Amino acid sequence: MPMRRVDTDVSRFRRIVRGQIRKNLRKYVSQGELKTLQGGRVVAVPLPEINLPKFTFGDRGGSGVGQGEGEEGEGVGSEPGEDPGDHELEAEVTLDELAAILGEELELPHIEPRGRQNVVTDVRRYRDIRRVGPHSLRHFKRTFRNALKRQIATGTYDPAAPRIIPQRDDERFRSFDVSPVPESSAAILYMMDVSGSMGTEQKEVVRNAAFWLDTWIKSQYRNVATRYVVHDAAAREVDRHNFFHLKESGGTKISSAYRLVDQIIDADYPPDQWNVYCFQFSDGDNWSGGDTTECLRLLDESLLPKSNQFAYGQVKSAYGSGQFKHDLDQRFGDDERLVTCDIPDRDGILDCLREFLRRGR
Asked: How many CB atoms lie within 10 A of CB 154?
């Protein structure tokens, strides 16, 4: 069926939208989570650079609506303003489209799942043949062959003037059978330091990064579970809202978060069935060198073997020393399962996402 003009226009508009999103991706990543619609499946992206079309009416010879007293350009009783208007257009794109744009811009490889697939979906495959069915699924070769065999057997086939006319009993139709197909699943476990040195701005950086990490990973897997762990001197699991809104206080003991995440993985996400991703965010301060040694042990013996990837993002704060990232790099610098990055401010989020996701693990 030929493409209608409106379909061509829509396709062209969507190409423009994609181009604008790619052009302004760093701004979208740094400014915060985008507004979600339709149960979180669609996001509204502000596009101030696209001008809305407008109608221009011609001169109707002094007749028609609005042709009363007054001169052209004369005011209608309101005072003129000094500031330009805000004509911002919101374009709706799906999260999958947004993930594709992120992948194109950052040149991200598709993730290769490693765990055994544990979610089963029924898939229809047309590999069976039946005597009944809709004509749209009629199997031409089998129908033709049955008609030919019948005409030869009954003596009605004339080689000098071959003409094959299928009858109802000759017809065969494609039919589907239902097969269980496993699909890969992923578990995302976020850890964040909520000690006194992690303020509102640092949490906003983590929230923005988490939104885009979720968007990319969910585009790679059909089933994704997300869990949130916060810690100061002790760790606890919370929901998404509390993860980003808990008030900061207390000291920092990172090993408490590592132990809790290790327990969650063992209880709910065995690595032979799940692809596990751990994302940790902190300002780099830890309680003591002894606790850092314990963290390195937990990573080496437990968390890294169970994870597709363990990522540590160090958010700059006025009080953080940044020592923890140095210790991780020194101990695991050549281990592809662990990746670290510095996030100096919101503008550094996009570069950190590239570092976290570029290995396709």
From this structure: 8
